[in-house]
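lol ok so funny story. i was supposed to be doing the assay writeup but got distracted and ended up predicting the structure for this chain instead. priorities right. anyway since i did it might as well share w the group, maybe its usefull for someone
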Amino acid sequence: MELDAAVVLAPNVLPAWGGGRSLLDYAAEAALWMPLAMQVPWMADAVACIARLAPPDALERQAEASRKALRALGWHKPGPGMAWRQLRRRGWPARTLGAAAFSTVFDFWLAACHCYSAAWSCAPPGRPPLGAWYAMLDAQGCARASTPLERALWWSDGAGIVPGAGVGIVATEERAQTLLRLQRMLHGARRDPRLARGREAVRCRPPARPLPLVLVHGGADGLIPPAFSSLPYARMLRAHGDPHTLELPAQAPHYDALLAHADPCAGLSPLLPHGFAALDRLDAALDRR
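and the output, tada:
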């Protein structure tokens, strides 16, 4: 089946050229620095709105592990201000950092690193790169066997990243050790070549034939920052001469479902209506051909 056109919402895309960053690269960075950055004073209200949904002291435990890992990497007295400045220097827009509270408090960044490092390295199930494995968890958080019904529901209830649908991450080492391992696999003197090959394998080239595209990406996306994905992808399309439109609704997050838990002062608005409107416009344009 060939497409006549496409509307793409909040794409997690690494362009073949023109810049951009892979999710594994910036998730590893966020897992290390973001728990500290969320402790700057101006993030207090946004973090408080999300933290009430998470286990007590979840963010503080993450922050302490980050401090320990950063000291081992040679950073002296790592703190919130330093973390915020470091992320800004690495290209994180201030608006994106302000919207990243949910992904940070619920520890999405490290969860994504477990998933992506295993996928990129094509690791066998028994040899995960970050020394953790997946299992169904009981009420006490201990691994147990899954039932046939639970396995059947993974296809409908799983979001693609563990934890979810009853499956959790069973770590075999302290969080600080995992953060160190991840940084050394990506940036150390003995980088893991499997991850480099995986990164190159997922780079996205322009469409094989001219394909009108509408990219819609929320300016307040704290999960897949458009500065790392949609914007460089649009630059690649422009350089290649491909027809496309880029829309960046300033107040839209990544997941509309999170609006129910967002800081009421954040002024966020849903992304999906922008996607539906783009589909209507594109459909009308195709009808006029």
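The first helix runs from residue 23 to 37. The chain is about 45% helix and 10% strand.
back to the writeup now i swear
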